[in-house]
Amino acid sequence: MKDAFGAPQSLLVLGGTSGIGLATARRLIARRARTVWLAGRPSPALDAAAASLRALRPDGLSSDGVDVRTVAFDALNPASHEEALGKVFAEGDVDLALLAFGAAGDQEHDEADPLAAVRVAQTNYTGALSASLVCAGAMQAQGHGALVVLSSVAGERARRADFIYGSSKAGLDTFTQGLSDAMDGTGVQVMTVRPGTVTPRHDTAGRLTATVEEVAGAIELGLRRRSATVYVPARLRFVMAALRHLPGPVYRAVQDATVPE
Asked: Which residue ranges run through the membrane (predicted)?
Protein backbone atom coordinates (compact mmCIF):
# COMPACT_ATOMS: atom_id res chain seq x y z
CA MET A 1 0.00 0.00 0.00
CA LYS A 2 1.02 3.63 -0.43
CA ASP A 3 2.49 5.35 2.59
CA ALA A 4 0.85 8.21 4.51
CA PHE A 5 2.15 10.69 1.92
CA GLY A 6 0.76 8.76 -1.04
CA ALA A 7 4.13 7.41 -2.20
CA PRO A 8 4.12 3.89 -3.72
CA GLN A 9 5.68 1.24 -1.49
CA SER A 10 5.84 -1.47 -4.16
CA LEU A 11 6.81 -1.05 -7.80
CA LEU A 12 6.81 -3.28 -10.88
CA VAL A 13 8.95 -2.11 -13.81
CA LEU A 14 8.07 -3.81 -17.09
CA GLY A 15 11.27 -3.40 -19.05
CA GLY A 16 13.59 -3.95 -16.12
CA THR A 17 16.70 -2.54 -17.80
CA SER A 18 14.98 0.64 -19.03
CA GLY A 19 16.86 3.82 -18.12
CA ILE A 20 13.60 5.63 -17.42
CA GLY A 21 12.26 2.69 -15.42
CA LEU A 22 15.37 2.48 -13.25
CA ALA A 23 15.52 6.26 -12.75
CA THR A 24 11.89 6.17 -11.58
CA ALA A 25 12.65 3.27 -9.25
CA ARG A 26 15.56 5.20 -7.72
CA ARG A 27 13.35 8.22 -7.07
CA LEU A 28 10.66 6.11 -5.42
CA ILE A 29 13.21 4.20 -3.35
CA ALA A 30 14.41 7.58 -2.09
CA ARG A 31 10.83 8.11 -0.95
CA ARG A 32 10.99 4.75 0.87
CA ALA A 33 9.55 2.32 -1.65
CA ARG A 34 10.33 -1.09 -0.14
CA THR A 35 9.74 -3.63 -2.90
CA VAL A 36 10.78 -3.40 -6.56
CA TRP A 37 10.17 -6.00 -9.24
CA LEU A 38 12.17 -5.75 -12.48
CA ALA A 39 10.49 -7.66 -15.32
CA GLY A 40 12.48 -8.49 -18.43
CA ARG A 41 14.30 -11.15 -20.36
CA PRO A 42 16.82 -12.91 -18.07
CA SER A 43 20.24 -11.41 -18.76
CA PRO A 44 23.35 -10.09 -17.03
CA ALA A 45 21.98 -6.58 -17.66
CA LEU A 46 18.79 -7.37 -15.74
CA ASP A 47 20.79 -8.84 -12.86
CA ALA A 48 23.05 -5.78 -12.80
CA ALA A 49 20.05 -3.45 -12.73
CA ALA A 50 18.63 -5.31 -9.76
CA ALA A 51 21.98 -5.22 -7.95
CA SER A 52 22.26 -1.47 -8.48
CA LEU A 53 18.91 -0.91 -6.78
CA ARG A 54 19.70 -3.29 -3.92
CA ALA A 55 22.78 -1.21 -3.17
CA LEU A 56 20.65 1.83 -2.36
CA ARG A 57 20.18 2.57 1.31
CA PRO A 58 17.47 5.22 1.71
CA ASP A 59 17.00 6.78 5.13
CA GLY A 60 14.33 5.11 7.19
CA LEU A 61 14.73 1.60 5.81
CA SER A 62 16.42 -1.29 7.55
CA SER A 63 20.04 -2.20 6.90
CA ASP A 64 18.75 -4.88 4.53
CA GLY A 65 17.85 -2.13 2.08
CA VAL A 66 15.28 -2.56 -0.65
CA ASP A 67 13.77 -5.90 -1.61
CA VAL A 68 14.53 -6.07 -5.34
CA ARG A 69 13.42 -9.10 -7.34
CA THR A 70 13.47 -10.05 -11.00
CA VAL A 71 10.86 -11.90 -13.05
CA ALA A 72 11.21 -13.31 -16.55
CA PHE A 73 9.04 -11.33 -18.96
CA ASP A 74 8.98 -11.20 -22.76
CA ALA A 75 6.86 -8.52 -24.41
CA LEU A 76 6.77 -10.57 -27.60
CA ASN A 77 5.16 -13.54 -25.86
CA PRO A 78 1.75 -12.30 -24.69
CA ALA A 79 0.62 -15.86 -23.96
CA SER A 80 3.08 -15.88 -21.04
CA HIS A 81 2.10 -12.54 -19.54
CA GLU A 82 -0.69 -13.64 -17.27
CA GLU A 83 1.44 -16.36 -15.68
CA ALA A 84 4.62 -14.27 -15.42
CA LEU A 85 2.98 -11.16 -13.99
CA GLY A 86 0.58 -13.20 -11.92
CA LYS A 87 3.59 -14.43 -9.93
CA VAL A 88 4.37 -10.84 -8.99
CA PHE A 89 0.86 -9.96 -7.83
CA ALA A 90 0.59 -13.27 -5.97
CA GLU A 91 3.46 -12.11 -3.73
CA GLY A 92 1.53 -9.04 -2.55
CA ASP A 93 -0.11 -5.84 -3.70
CA VAL A 94 1.66 -3.73 -6.33
CA ASP A 95 1.13 0.01 -5.91
CA LEU A 96 2.67 1.04 -9.22
CA ALA A 97 3.31 -0.77 -12.51
CA LEU A 98 5.48 1.15 -14.96
CA LEU A 99 5.35 -0.07 -18.54
CA ALA A 100 8.76 1.06 -19.77
CA PHE A 101 9.66 -1.37 -22.55
CA GLY A 102 9.58 -0.58 -26.25
CA ALA A 103 11.35 -0.89 -29.58
CA ALA A 104 12.39 2.16 -31.58
CA GLY A 105 13.21 0.17 -34.68
CA ASP A 106 15.08 1.50 -37.70
CA GLN A 107 12.69 3.24 -40.08
CA GLU A 108 14.70 2.78 -43.28
CA HIS A 109 15.48 -0.87 -42.54
CA ASP A 110 11.98 -1.68 -41.32
CA GLU A 111 10.32 -0.23 -44.43
CA ALA A 112 12.32 -2.73 -46.49
CA ASP A 113 11.71 -5.60 -44.04
CA PRO A 114 8.01 -5.88 -43.13
CA LEU A 115 8.68 -8.57 -40.54
CA ALA A 116 11.01 -6.18 -38.69
CA ALA A 117 8.28 -3.55 -38.80
CA VAL A 118 5.80 -6.05 -37.40
CA ARG A 119 8.20 -6.80 -34.55
CA VAL A 120 8.25 -3.10 -33.60
CA ALA A 121 4.45 -3.00 -33.67
CA GLN A 122 4.11 -6.20 -31.65
CA THR A 123 6.50 -4.97 -28.98
CA ASN A 124 5.12 -1.45 -28.65
CA TYR A 125 1.44 -2.20 -29.09
CA THR A 126 0.44 -5.86 -28.80
CA GLY A 127 2.89 -6.62 -26.00
CA ALA A 128 2.03 -3.42 -24.17
CA LEU A 129 -1.71 -4.00 -24.54
CA SER A 130 -1.45 -7.50 -23.10
CA ALA A 131 0.77 -6.53 -20.16
CA SER A 132 -1.36 -3.48 -19.37
CA LEU A 133 -4.57 -5.50 -19.26
CA VAL A 134 -2.99 -8.09 -16.96
CA CYS A 135 -1.69 -5.41 -14.59
CA ALA A 136 -4.90 -3.37 -14.64
CA GLY A 137 -6.99 -6.45 -13.94
CA ALA A 138 -4.79 -7.46 -11.01
CA MET A 139 -4.88 -3.93 -9.60
CA GLN A 140 -8.64 -3.81 -9.96
CA ALA A 141 -8.83 -7.07 -7.98
CA GLN A 142 -6.64 -5.65 -5.21
CA GLY A 143 -8.69 -2.44 -5.20
CA HIS A 144 -5.92 0.09 -5.85
CA GLY A 145 -2.84 0.86 -7.90
CA ALA A 146 -1.42 3.01 -10.66
CA LEU A 147 -0.45 1.91 -14.16
CA VAL A 148 1.97 4.25 -15.92
CA VAL A 149 2.47 3.68 -19.66
CA LEU A 150 5.39 5.23 -21.52
CA SER A 151 4.22 6.38 -24.92
CA SER A 152 5.74 9.11 -27.12
CA VAL A 153 4.82 12.35 -28.83
CA ALA A 154 5.73 10.47 -32.02
CA GLY A 155 2.29 8.88 -31.78
CA GLU A 156 0.42 12.15 -32.07
CA ARG A 157 1.05 12.73 -35.76
CA ALA A 158 2.89 10.57 -38.28
CA ARG A 159 6.19 11.80 -39.59
CA ARG A 160 8.35 10.49 -42.39
CA ALA A 161 11.34 9.76 -40.18
CA ASP A 162 9.62 7.29 -37.81
CA PHE A 163 6.04 6.57 -38.84
CA ILE A 164 6.29 2.82 -38.10
CA TYR A 165 7.34 3.49 -34.51
CA GLY A 166 4.92 6.42 -34.28
CA SER A 167 1.96 4.35 -35.48
CA SER A 168 2.59 1.76 -32.76
CA LYS A 169 2.65 4.50 -30.13
CA ALA A 170 -0.52 6.04 -31.58
CA GLY A 171 -2.29 2.73 -31.10
CA LEU A 172 -0.92 2.44 -27.57
CA ASP A 173 -2.09 5.98 -26.77
CA THR A 174 -5.66 5.23 -27.89
CA PHE A 175 -5.70 1.99 -25.95
CA THR A 176 -4.37 3.62 -22.77
CA GLN A 177 -6.91 6.41 -22.93
CA GLY A 178 -9.69 3.85 -23.22
CA LEU A 179 -8.25 1.77 -20.39
CA SER A 180 -8.16 4.88 -18.22
CA ASP A 181 -11.88 5.38 -18.84
CA ALA A 182 -12.56 1.71 -18.13
CA MET A 183 -10.73 1.91 -14.79
CA ASP A 184 -12.56 5.05 -13.66
CA GLY A 185 -14.12 4.43 -10.25
CA THR A 186 -12.20 1.19 -9.63
CA GLY A 187 -9.35 2.70 -7.60
CA VAL A 188 -6.88 2.15 -10.44
CA GLN A 189 -5.16 5.18 -11.97
CA VAL A 190 -3.91 4.94 -15.56
CA MET A 191 -1.42 7.58 -16.70
CA THR A 192 0.09 8.07 -20.17
CA VAL A 193 3.55 9.63 -20.41
CA ARG A 194 4.57 11.26 -23.70
CA PRO A 195 8.24 12.23 -23.79
CA GLY A 196 9.98 13.88 -26.70
CA THR A 197 13.54 12.87 -27.50
CA VAL A 198 15.21 11.38 -24.41
CA THR A 199 18.91 12.24 -24.15
CA PRO A 200 21.71 11.27 -21.72
CA ARG A 201 22.09 14.87 -20.55
CA HIS A 202 20.16 18.12 -20.69
CA ASP A 203 20.27 19.83 -24.08
CA THR A 204 21.32 23.40 -23.33
CA ALA A 205 20.51 24.43 -26.90
CA GLY A 206 16.86 24.48 -25.88
CA ARG A 207 15.53 21.66 -28.05
CA LEU A 208 12.43 19.83 -26.91
CA THR A 209 14.33 17.03 -25.19
CA ALA A 210 14.47 15.49 -21.73
CA THR A 211 16.86 13.31 -19.76
CA VAL A 212 15.80 10.03 -18.17
CA GLU A 213 15.93 11.73 -14.77
CA GLU A 214 13.61 14.48 -16.00
CA VAL A 215 11.14 11.91 -17.31
CA ALA A 216 11.29 10.06 -13.98
CA GLY A 217 10.66 13.31 -12.12
CA ALA A 218 7.66 14.06 -14.35
CA ILE A 219 6.27 10.59 -13.67
CA GLU A 220 6.57 11.09 -9.92
CA LEU A 221 4.89 14.50 -10.12
CA GLY A 222 2.14 13.16 -12.37
CA LEU A 223 1.39 10.39 -9.89
CA ARG A 224 1.08 12.88 -7.04
CA ARG A 225 -1.24 15.04 -9.14
CA ARG A 226 -3.15 12.00 -10.45
CA SER A 227 -2.62 13.26 -13.99
CA ALA A 228 -4.10 11.39 -16.94
CA THR A 229 -1.43 12.51 -19.42
CA VAL A 230 2.08 13.86 -18.86
CA TYR A 231 4.28 15.51 -21.49
CA VAL A 232 8.04 15.72 -20.97
CA PRO A 233 9.09 18.48 -21.21
CA ALA A 234 5.72 19.99 -20.30
CA ARG A 235 5.81 22.59 -23.10
CA LEU A 236 5.50 19.77 -25.63
CA ARG A 237 1.77 19.73 -24.85
CA PHE A 238 1.38 23.09 -26.59
CA VAL A 239 3.84 22.33 -29.40
CA MET A 240 2.02 19.14 -30.32
CA ALA A 241 -1.39 20.83 -30.10
CA ALA A 242 -0.21 23.25 -32.78
CA LEU A 243 1.49 20.63 -34.97
CA ARG A 244 -1.57 18.38 -35.00
CA HIS A 245 -3.52 21.06 -36.85
CA LEU A 246 -0.98 22.12 -39.46
CA PRO A 247 -1.95 21.47 -43.10
CA GLY A 248 -0.12 18.48 -44.57
CA PRO A 249 2.26 20.38 -46.88
CA VAL A 250 3.25 22.80 -44.11
CA TYR A 251 3.75 19.97 -41.63
CA ARG A 252 5.93 18.02 -44.04
CA ALA A 253 8.07 21.10 -44.55
CA VAL A 254 8.73 21.67 -40.86
CA GLN A 255 8.46 18.27 -39.18
CA ASP A 256 12.10 17.19 -39.33
CA ALA A 257 13.25 20.47 -37.83
CA THR A 258 10.55 20.65 -35.17
CA VAL A 259 9.11 17.34 -34.00
CA PRO A 260 11.21 15.39 -31.47
CA GLU A 261 11.77 11.69 -31.99
From this structure: none
Over residues 30-44, the mean pLDDT reads 94
Catalytic residue (one of 125, 165, 231, 251) = 165
pLDDT at 261: 40
Which pLDDT score is estimated for 256? 52
Task: Report, as an integer, the average pLDDT of 29-50.
Answer: 94
- Show me where the domains of the chain are located: 10-258
Give domain 10-258's CATH superfamily.
NAD(P)-binding Rossmann-like Domain (3.40.50.720)
pTM of the full structure: 0.89
Q: What DSSP line would sit under the chain, residue for residue? A: ---TTS--SEEEEESTT-HHHHHHHHHHHHTT--EEEEEE--SHHHHHHHHHHHT---TTS-TT--EEEEEE--TT-GGGHHHHHHHHHHTS--SEEEE-------HHHHHH-HHHHHHHHIIIIIIHHHHHHHHHHHHHHHT-EEEEEE--GGGTS--TTTHHHHHHHHHHHHHHHHHHHHHTTTTEEEEEEEE-EEESS--TT--SEEEHHHHHHHHHHHHHHT-SEEEESTTHHHHHHHHTTS-HHHHHHHHHHHS--
